[in-house]
Amino acid sequence: MTEVKKIVEKEVLMNGTQAVAYAAMYADVDVVAAYPIRPYTEVMDTISKLIADGELDAEFIVAEGEHGQFETVKHASLVGARTLVGSSGVGWLYAMEAIVVTATDRAPVVAIIGNRALDDPGAYGVEHNDALMVRDVGWLLAWVDTAQEAFDTTLIAYRVAEDQRVLLPVGISMDGGFLTHSEQIVRLPPKEIVKDFLPPYNRGKYLVHPDNPITVAPQVNEDWVMEIRRQHEEAMERARVVISEAYESFKKVFGRYPGSTGDIKMPENPFVEPFMIDDAEVVLIGMGTVSKPMKVAIKNMRKQGYKVGMLRIRWFRPFPTQDVIRYLSNARVVCVIDRDYSMGSPNRGGVVYHEIRSSLYDLDQRPKVLNFIGGLGGREITIQDVEKIIKIGYEHRDTPITKPVYWVGVRGDPW
Amino acid sequence: MEIEDQVKYVEITYRGIFQKRLAKYIAEGIVYTAREMGKPAVSFGRYGDSPERNGVPAKYYVGIGNGISEEDLIGYSTRVEPDLVDVIVVLDDTLLKGVESWAWQGVQPINLKLKPNGTMIVTSLKRIDELAKMVPKKEFNWTLGVIKTEPSFSGLWAFKDDLTMEKVWGAIAKLRPDIIDLDHLIKYVSKKSNADKRISAIKETYTSVEYRTIVKNEGIDFLYNPPRLLTWQEMLEGTVIPAVPRGKRNEQFKRGTTKFERPTVDFDTCIKCRLCWIYCPDECFDETPDGYYDIAYDYCVGCGICAEVCPVKDCIVMVDESMFTDYRRPYEMWKENRVKYKEWLNKVRQARKERVYVPGLGR
């Protein structure tokens, strides 16, 4: 019989950004590069205080801008340092050149994206288009929806990113305001046992070091690019396995599934969070904190006889295609709530909507897919909004879809 | 069960940057005490407020679950702000005149979101009956409590631990034991540093907080008309906003609630140098036909730059906002009756000149 370790977790009130900083401290990061922009900034506020208080021994580099910030961690990562970086909105985009080469050079940087609307107009609130800008450049992308999940996913991110089968950067997205600035109780495990989950960062033969003479990122032109992209895509695919392993290992070491607490039970699937989905005729899909009002609305509507469930996307890259097919193939209507928009896209809808439609295309019996664009720039998606979405979805069980995309609560459009 | 029963909300209205950390710490203490009572609790600030701006009214919230799970509580609380609140804490009595914290929403009454039979707790040196004359009417009875103290300015850069947190908690425990009760509050505070000092501040306020019922329709008329925001079809394209015509001000975007003091002008000593007009960052000064400079108090944010650049001693003097009941323009008042204006000027200028750090009751 194996001995089951009883782990005593400390309950601390903290917001999503503080939770990430604490996780990075637990992961014993070596290099942190900072440049401020709301709403992610408090990650750096918190970690600089942890360094100042002697809780963490790390280089804290204040960059001259986001581009320098992301270049700094890329190089530090290539020489074997565990790194933390992050940004929001247009700051994240200002670093885009460095962000792209971080992925192609296979530097397992962990970045926190406090989702923020892209300017103009100025708005600090959440919109997912900033993080989604790296959809196609080979970053792993996770969306978290509680401070606990932010903490747990940060530890997992290092484990996945640094796995030699992967060696890819991870972006952890969290909703600006609703998660970055909301305090919830986070259960912190004892720091000593983190090493049982997270091995030291080892780049092996890819370490840039005088004893290991290699060149990273030479000029190669048309003779090599295709092969490099093909390798990158394979690593992205291998990440699926590594992510699954990491979640199982997390559960073994810490005694709970990532994202779960004593009170909140997370279903054991790393990529998606199914909720009341087994017999659901209408399934809601979303990423991030919108899942919270969604769950309450689903419970309310279930009481009124609506068979409705939810599938929250936890990892957006790699995209959980198989899970989407598995959970949605029996649904009649799928309502995708997008906190983003893809201008001029095939169906004039959001990014997640198009990914879901694409995933379902090969099914013989496809559910109908509706899209709800809402919560842009930090506007609320309330429980009442979600209940209305469920009703619209339910109406389309037997009637054909004439209007596939609704804008939730935009002034000037009835919905 | 209605949402109102399932979640109780505390709203903390404070002045940005000066009281940012104070508000957050007050919220934190309520969360931990509620958890001592076995209830799930979360806290969140109204993110769009930009509380780093000097003096801007901003809000912080605590949500406490009442027979619901932590997960549902987070579901209800993933909000910009709750629809209704049980308790409003006001950390500066000059906020009673209305708050325009969330841009584009207009100046709102301080107790806009108060539930029937709700409680509002104000830190003030004024007596409860003076404050009752400033609060907006409600359609129901509610309770007003006063913690007798100077406003504590414990903001972003330095936290003055003057026991204001403890006083607020003590007052809530007295007036709303359903939110946090004294026993569990003391249990929580016992774990903090200087616990004895803190507990005595809590108990002192618990016994000394002044309160009474404000009956239905007692108080002032405060009609709140939210500005009508344009539809997407009506707006100009490309993030473009048309200018307010020259010589006019935006009626829908008054920022006067940011100020906790305002400038007064002694027109008898004014030398018409125009420096106030030049330096005012919000263009609150209007040139009068006889060359003086009148102030549109509605738009003044109380920054004090005019008083700083005015070369004449005691011509422009900043005065505590609580001395004013309306937004009348000073030049009009002076023109109306110069003697009376001078008397009034002398009177208001006798009030508190600057806000000071006052150690707590529980030392």
Structure description:
The complex is a heterodimer of chains A (415) and B (363). Chain A has 415 residues and is an alpha/beta fold. Chain A has helices spanning 16-26, 42-52, 66-78, 89-94, 96-104, 129-132, 147-162, 194-197, 225-254, 291-303, 321-328, 351-360, 383-395, and strands spanning 10-14, 31-34, 59-62, 83-87, 110-115, 140-143, 170-175, 182-188, 272-275, 282-286, 308-313, 315-317, 333-338, 368-373, 405-407. In chain A, strands 3-2-4-5-7-6-12 form a 7-stranded mixed sheet, with helices on both faces. In chain B, strands 2-3-1-4-5-6-7 form a 7-stranded mixed sheet. Chain B has a two-stranded antiparallel sheet with strand order 8-11. In chain B, α2 (20-36) packs across α5 and α10 (330-336) crosses α11. Classes of the chains: A alpha/beta (415), B alpha/beta (363). The interface between A and B is medium-sized, with 36 and 31 residues. β8 of chain A pairs antiparallel with β2 (41-45) of chain B. Chain A: Residues 23-246 form the Pyruvate flavodoxin/ferredoxin oxidoreductase pyrimidine binding domain. Chain A: This is 2-oxoacid oxidoreductase (ferredoxin).
